[in-house]
């Protein structure tokens, strides 16, 4: 319980995603699978989020930097630059460590989702032996990361708040690497690593790939700082509701602009897609016209508005639509969204609209969905099972993104694929925790990641 709160109270979790392409008959995996996946997932993660993190941590550690650099001599500027490079190396090692733990979780989570897979995918199991994954009871499953790692991952977003020794132990780094006493943190010139130290540091990094290096020049970047109001009030209905309270603690992970007036009703508190995941889905479904079939208070619709030409946001609940409109205005994108009050099933049967993509995030039956070890997507989704819901969506387009519980039966998810086509199943993590999966269907959406092996 305690660690649960530590996890959920953090406002800026890191987002990691892994995906795998399946077709109805086989997963087309080969022995290189894990290594390839690891490489590409790490690169896309680091390219997507690395620089922002480096900057954020840098300015936390050296708040005086911005002013100091203005007056700095050329020599002092070079000293800062060297310090920045070391900082970048340290942080990359730090995130690589966490990433490795998440990857181990992914192996386990994927395996859990495939547990019930029977005849139809009989050859997948053999192929997955390459992953060296072991069957674990989902309720007791833990990553292969040690308990110390877990504690670290749960507690740590700010490296600075950890003891130096603890950091080094957990990062598996030598004392000359990433270690700084609190006192000399603010004295960049005295703590610059020697060149040889720097070199050996970079040699120690688990992945050496040129593309992996984020180009380093902190001076050239303007630093975004969003000031959060500290005085947001917990809505009364949440105070009395133990179930909901945990979502309050992660409000900034749901909406980074939460304190600018985001509105959510009870159902939406536990249903809204966290912003970083919604952003990822929006990158994947970027198109001209998209239908968000169950838009709720707009978590996904807002992000679609940033990547799509036009968003048709449908919900059966008028109050939620009003909140979605206000939330979209906070993100400055309300003008790109048409809010449609309708039953999606009815809409799909009657509309002449032919969007480029549809996103489905229907109700899962409330937070109790977690009580099922394996979530049956044909039985438990509302208002319809996954297959008939997909049939409705396919009247409009074949390009579909489907947001589903992390414990979904992957066999059922794969079975939604059209014969002869593939689907891509994406596992979305915030920090080390799997939040949900997103399945993509339709030729133009599914990544061609296995082409090489297929040839
Ligand atoms: P969760 O399992 O309730 O939260 O939902 P969490 O923090 O993982 O729970 P914990 O007890 O394991 O800590 C995880 C995410 O799934 C939420 O943030 C929502 O984005 C999404 N989600 C949850 N529910 C119940 C629904 C739902 O009914 N519909 C949709 N579309 N998304 C949901
Ligand atoms: N993706 C949304 C959350 C969706 S929650 C977000 O990130 O904010 C599921 C939503 O489906 C709820 O808002 C619910 O009102 C809506 N809904 C339920 N049945 C529906 C139907 N038949 N047609 C359209 N919307 C429906």
Automatic annotation (TrEMBL):
SUPFAM superfamilies: S-adenosyl-L-methionine-dependent methyltransferases
Positions of region (Disordered): 176-211
Reaction equation(s) it catalyzes: a 5'-end (N(2),N(7)-dimethyl 5'-triphosphoguanosine)-ribonucleoside in snRNA + S-adenosyl-L-methionine = a 5'-end (N(2),N(2),N(7)-trimethyl 5'-triphosphoguanosine)-ribonucleoside in snRNA + S-adenosyl-L-homocysteine + H(+); a 5'-end (N(7)-methyl 5'-triphosphoguanosine)-ribonucleoside in snRNA + S-adenosyl-L-methionine = a 5'-end (N(2),N(7)-dimethyl 5'-triphosphoguanosine)-ribonucleoside in snRNA + S-adenosyl-L-homocysteine + H(+); a 5'-end (N(2),N(7)-dimethyl 5'-triphosphoguanosine)-ribonucleoside in snoRNA + S-adenosyl-L-methionine = a 5'-end (N(2),N(2),N(7)-trimethyl 5'-triphosphoguanosine)-ribonucleoside in snoRNA + S-adenosyl-L-homocysteine + H(+); a 5'-end (N(7)-methyl 5'-triphosphoguanosine)-ribonucleoside in snoRNA + S-adenosyl-L-methionine = a 5'-end (N(2),N(7)-dimethyl 5'-triphosphoguanosine)-ribonucleoside in snoRNA + S-adenosyl-L-homocysteine + H(+)
Gene3D superfamilies: Vaccinia Virus protein VP39 (3.40.50.150)
Homology family: Belongs to the methyltransferase superfamily. Trimethylguanosine synthase family.
Name of the protein in its database record: Trimethylguanosine synthase
Organism: Drosophila arizonae (Fruit fly)
């Amino acid at each position: 319980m305690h660690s649960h709160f530590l996890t959920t109270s953090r406002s800026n979790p890191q987002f990691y995603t892994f995906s795998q392409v399946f077709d109805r008959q086989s997963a087309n995996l080969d022995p290189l699978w894990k290594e390839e996946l690891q490489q590409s997932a790490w690169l896309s993660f680091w390219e997507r989020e690395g620089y922002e993190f480096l900057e954020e941590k840098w300015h936390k550690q050296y708040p005086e930097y911005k002013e100091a650099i203005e007056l700095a001599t050329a020599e002092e500027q070079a000293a800062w630059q060297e310090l920045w490079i070391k900082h970048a190396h340290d942080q990359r090692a730090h995130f690589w460590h966490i990433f490795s733990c998440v990857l181990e979780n992914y192996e386990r989570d994927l395996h859990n989702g495939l547990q019930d897979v029977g005849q139809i995918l009989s050859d997948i199991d053999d192929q997955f032996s390459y992953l060296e994954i072991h069957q674990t009871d989902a309720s007791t499953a833990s990553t292969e990361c040690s308990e110390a790692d877990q504690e670290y991952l749960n507690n740590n977003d700010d490296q600075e708040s950890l003891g130096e020794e603890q950091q080094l132990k957990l990062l598996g780094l030598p004392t000359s690497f990433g270690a700084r006493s609190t006192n000399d943190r603010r004295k960049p010139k005295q703590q610059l690593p020697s060149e040889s130290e720097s070199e050996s540091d970079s040699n120690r990094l688990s992945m050496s790939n040129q593309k992996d290096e984020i180009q380093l020049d902190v001076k050239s970047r303007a630093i975004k700082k969003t000031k959060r109001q500290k005085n947001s009030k917990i809505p009364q209905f949440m105070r009395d509701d133990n179930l909901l309270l945990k979502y309050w603690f992660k409000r900034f992970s749901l909406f980074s602009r939460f304190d600018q007036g985001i509105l959510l009703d009870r159902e939406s508190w536990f249903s809204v897609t966290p912003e970083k995941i919604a952003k990822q889905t929006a990158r994947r479904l970027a198109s001209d016209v998209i239908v968000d079939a169950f838009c709720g208070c707009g978590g996904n619709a807002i992000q679609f508005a940033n990547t799509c030409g036009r968003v048709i946001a449908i919900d059966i609940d008028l109050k939620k639509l009003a909140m979605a409109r206000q939330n979209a205005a906070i993100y400055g994108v309300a003008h790109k969204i048409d809010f449609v009050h309708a039953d999606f099933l009815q809409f799909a049967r009657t509309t002449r609209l032919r969007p480029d993509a549809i996103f489905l995030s229907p109700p899962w039956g409330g937070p109790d969905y977690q009580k099922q070890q394996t979530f049956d997507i044909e039985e438990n989704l509302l208002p319809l099972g996954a297959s008939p819901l997909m049939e409705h969506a396919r009247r409009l387009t074949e390009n579909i993104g489907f947001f589903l519980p992390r414990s979904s039966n992957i066999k059922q998810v794969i079975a939604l694929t059209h014969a002869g086509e593939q689907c891509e199943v994406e596992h979305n993590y915030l920090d080390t925790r799997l939040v949900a999966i997103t399945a993509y269907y339709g030729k133009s959406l599914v990544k061609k990641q296995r082409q090489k092996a297929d040839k």
